[in-house]
């Protein structure tokens, strides 16, 4: 089982002010500080500005609202309903020679890798089950039920990980452009040593430069797969990503190419 | 069977035998297929008339918040710890029942005359509280209420005002009450498994095991939820109001309700003229969190009765909301065709 999650973090409408502003709660780990002052969009196409007023030095979720251009509660409720979700407005830009930036690199870059992998398979040695999972950002709920249903022999999550190569950051030691990162552990799981060895071997077979990653926080679908049924050997291949859970998540396409070659070899082992 | 009886029976998390025995006796009136799961849940199954292979789990938790005795002091007072989420501020000077013999007691704390100005500014913690059961020695207290004795609030059941009810343990004997009423209505077209869960208040422990055990196609959880419509709460911050109908959550800390099921519940309420409100907050969590991620995933929806002063000795619900929960649950079990 190889899983990449389809969901992304966002904002759910919990109430509407008399003046038409939407009050929101987080869906997943949204930091209100890095979250505000962004353009957002609803599933039905309604656009909004996520903001707070007046300016404060520290921002709490209860300070935030979405302005969708409505002048009253009634007008707003004709455009969206309580319980509707907003996400960052779609954008995608190239930075320099190798890097790309978007609000949803986490985890669409892994979805892209998984699709490429599945398309590339021609008479595979092992059965590969690609799982595009739901509700990862709220606690790996989709991978939990999928792992139970599929009962795989081993599980691999593909997900982004944060970096230690921006000013004033140190951990983890992962750097953009130094290749895909093989996760040793994070807060959610300790990767099965067997999966770690397999990933290393796969990268070596493909002549791909890789990094080893120890993340003192966070978690991936591997944490849910690992605890399914009587226990399933699981690990994670990470795509190094700067500014995770902000509108400017940034990855390096060289790491993506290395990751694809690595998982192509991985499924042969 | 009345709501009053259910509320007054005692059963903190992990010590549900008294309430469970009562409910078991009631269940046996409607089906012989009643058993107690290994996680302490009471599971009663009534086969469907039309589609018996379709299995719907209906659940409500039997356990209530309370305390457990941790030690006896030299002067015969008992030290306690909370079982479930209890605000120590609502516990002071409340009457309680202690241990298997239900000894009367009262939760004590330092009286205002003896408090320093600093004491008065400070919130009393649970460790500042003790239970007085009228014993005067450590040995006497230990004999009357050994370590791990359960302590429950002792509140009379009172219906008052324009259709409200006040008691302890409305969370979630209201759900148990409506489940038993629905058993009386059974059989339904689909097989319905009535699960009275244990240990919800300490982490959804009973429901986690029961959902695995029962392996239903879908689940409906009957619960109570915090109503914050009193006092100085700004109108837009009132996420749920007593007397305004059964509350439906689109999302809380543990569960996101499947959208199709959520929409189905709204349309069922509208079609049947059932008072329903959408809870405009995403805090809290209940058995649905454990049920919906069990096995392959079990689509789950929660129908909640708004409850003021929840987790306190004097919780308040509107009788009309309890009726709305009953009718909405009945309508949903009678129409489980919600998948697009």
Short structural description:
The complex is a heterodimer of chains A (269) and B (340). Chain A is of the alpha+beta class and 269 residues long. Chain A has helices spanning 32-35, 73-79, 105-120, 141-150, 193-205, 222-226, 253-266; strands at 2-5, 10-16, 22-27, 38-42, 47-51, 65-67, 85-88, 93-95, 99-102, 130-133, 154-161, 181-185, 211-214, 233-240, 249-252.
Could you tell me how far the N terminus lies from the C terminus of chain B, measured between alpha carbons in angstroms? 39 Å
Report the CATH C-level class of the largest domain in chain A.
Alpha Beta
Shape of chain A: globular
**What structural class do helix, strand and pairing data of chain A support?**
alpha+beta
Superfamily at the CATH H level of the largest domain in chain B? Answer: Zn peptidases
Structure description:
The complex is a heterodimer of chains A (269) and B (340). With 269 residues, chain A is an alpha+beta fold. Chain A folds into 2 domains: 181 residues, 3-Layer(aba) Sandwich (Aminopeptidase); 79 residues, Elongation Factor Tu (Ef-tu), domain 3, CATH 2.40.30.40. In chain A, 26% of the residues lie in helices and 28% in strands. Chain A contains 7 helices and 15 strands. In chain A, β8 and β9 form a beta hairpin. The relative contact order of chain A is 0.19. The model of chain A has no long low-confidence stretch (mean pLDDT 94). By secondary structure, chain B is an alpha+beta fold. Chain B folds into 2 domains: 229 residues, 3-Layer(aba) Sandwich (Aminopeptidase), CATH 3.40.630; 88 residues, Beta Barrel (Elongation Factor Tu (Ef-tu), domain 3). Helices cover 26% and strands 27% of the residues of chain B. Chain B contains 9 helices and 17 strands. In chain B, the strands form 3 sheets. In chain B, strands 1-2-12-3-13-16-14-15 form an 8-stranded mixed β-sheet, with helices on both faces. In chain B, a hairpin with a 3-residue loop joins β10 and β11. At the A-B interface, β2, β3 and α4 of A face loops of B.
């Amino acid at each position: 089982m190889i899983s990449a999650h389809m969901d992304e973090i966002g904002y759910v409408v919990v109430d509407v002010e008399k003046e038409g502003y939407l009050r929101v709660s987080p869906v997943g780990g949204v930091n209100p500080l890095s979250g505000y002052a962004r353009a957002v969009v609803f599933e039905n196409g309604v656009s909004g500005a996520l903001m707070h007023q007046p300016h404060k030095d520290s921002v709490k979720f209860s300070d935030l609202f979405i302005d969708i251009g409505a002048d009253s509660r009634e007008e707003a409720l004709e455009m969206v309903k309580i319980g509707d979700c907003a996400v960052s407005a779609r954008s995608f830009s190239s930075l320099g020679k190798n890097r790309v930036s978007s609000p949803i690199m986490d985890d669409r870059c892994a979805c892209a890798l998984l699709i490429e992998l599945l398309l590339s398979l021609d008479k595979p040695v092992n059965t590969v089950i690609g799982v595009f999972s739901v509700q990862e950002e709220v606690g790996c709920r989709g991978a939990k039920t999928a792992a139970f249903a599929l009962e795989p022999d081993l599980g691999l999550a593909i997900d982004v990980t944060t970096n230690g190569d921006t000013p004033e950051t140190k951990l983890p030691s992962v750097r953009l452009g130094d290749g895909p990162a093989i996760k040793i552990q994070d807060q959610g799981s300790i990767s099965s040593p067997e999966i770690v060895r397999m990933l290393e071997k796969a990268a070596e077979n493909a002549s791909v430069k890789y990094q080893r990653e120890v993340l003192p926080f966070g978690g991936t679908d591997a944490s849910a797969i690992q605890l399914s049924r009587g226990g399933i050997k699981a690990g994670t291949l990470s795509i190094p990503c700067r500014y995770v859970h902000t509108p400017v998540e940034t990855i390096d396409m060289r790491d993506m190419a290395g990751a694809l070659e690595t998982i192509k070899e991985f499924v042969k082992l | 069977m009345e709501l009053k009886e259910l509320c007054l029976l005692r059963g903190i998390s992990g010590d549900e035998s008294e309430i469970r025995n009562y409910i078991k006796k009631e269940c046996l009136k409607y089906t012989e297929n009643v058993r107690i799961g290994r996680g302490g849940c009471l599971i009663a199954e009534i086969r469907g008339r039309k589609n018996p292979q379709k299995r719907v789990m209906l659940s409500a938790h039997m356990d209530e918040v309370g305390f457990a005795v941790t030690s006896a002091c030299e002067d015969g007072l008992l030290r306690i710890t909370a079982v479930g989420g209890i605000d120590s501020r609502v516990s002071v000077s409340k009457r309680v029942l202690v241990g298997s013999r239900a000894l009367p007691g009262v939760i004590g704390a330092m009286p205002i005359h003896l408090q320093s100005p600093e004491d008065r500014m400070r919130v009393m913690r649970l460790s500042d509280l003790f239970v007085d059961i009228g014993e005067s020695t450590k040995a006497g207290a230990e004999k009357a209420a050994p370590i791990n004795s359960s302590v429950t609030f002792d509140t009379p059941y009172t219906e008052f005002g324009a259709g409200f009810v006040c008691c302890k343990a409305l969370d979630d004997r209201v759900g148990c009450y409506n489940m038993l009423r629905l058993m009386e209505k059974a059989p339904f077209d689909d097989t319905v498994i009535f699960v009275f869960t244990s240990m919800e208040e300490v982490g959804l422990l009973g429901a986690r095991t029961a959902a695995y055990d029962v392996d239903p196609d879908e689940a409906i959880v009957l619960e109570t939820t915090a109503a914050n419509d009193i006092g100085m709460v700004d109108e837009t911050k009132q996420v749920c109001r007593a007397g305004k109908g059964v509350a439906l959550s689109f999302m809380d800390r543990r569960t996101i309700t499947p959208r199709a099921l959520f929409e189905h519940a709204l349309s069922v309420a509208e079609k049947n003229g059932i008072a329903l409100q959408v809870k405009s907050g995403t805090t809290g969590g209940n058995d649905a969190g454990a049920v919906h991620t069990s096995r392959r995933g079990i689509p789950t929806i929660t129908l909640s009765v708004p409850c003021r002063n929840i987790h306190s000795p004097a919780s308040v619900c509107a009788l009309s909301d309890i009726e709305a929960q009953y009718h909405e649950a009945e309508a949903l079990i009678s129409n489980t065709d919600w998948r697009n």
